[in-house]
């Protein structure tokens, strides 16, 4: 159970930043594998591109873009915390960042699909 002291937008922004960072770190080896296939041969790249054209892969790409946006927004939040004075509107900015991440991911999904 989550303690009440941790049930606030700042804590959830912290969690989103960490989780998205770990997920992106897990993605990188797969990305390097795909790049390696491109260097290996045109046939291997064509097989990878055929897999990348599947609906499941498109959903995974949407997730990746959304995670990147969440990680970017939460990272900017950390920089604001470090370098700017505290303001009362932080909760609103956290919500705005979450909405922006979903919007960017959705725009990507609509353009790719």
Q: Write down the overall mean pLDDT.
A: 82
Which geometry do the CA atoms define? elongated
**Distance between the first and last residues' Cα:** 39 Å
- Low-confidence stretches are none
Range of strand content: under 5%
Q: If helices are DSSP runs of H or I spanning 4 or more residues, what is the number of helices?
A: 4
Per DSSP E runs of 2 or more residues, the count of β-strands stands at: 0
Account of the protein in words:
- This protein has helices at 9-40, 42-52, 55-83, 90-112.
- With 113 residues, it is mostly helical.
Short descriptors:
single chain; 113 residues; mainly alpha; 4 helices; elongated
What are the SSEs and their pairings?
Blueprint: H1 9-40, H2 42-52, H3 55-83, H4 90-112
Question: Short description, anyone?
Answer:
This protein is an all-alpha fold and 113 residues long. Helix content is 84%, strand content 0%. Helix 1 runs antiparallel to helix 2 (42-52) and helix 1 (9-40) packs across helix 3 (55-83).
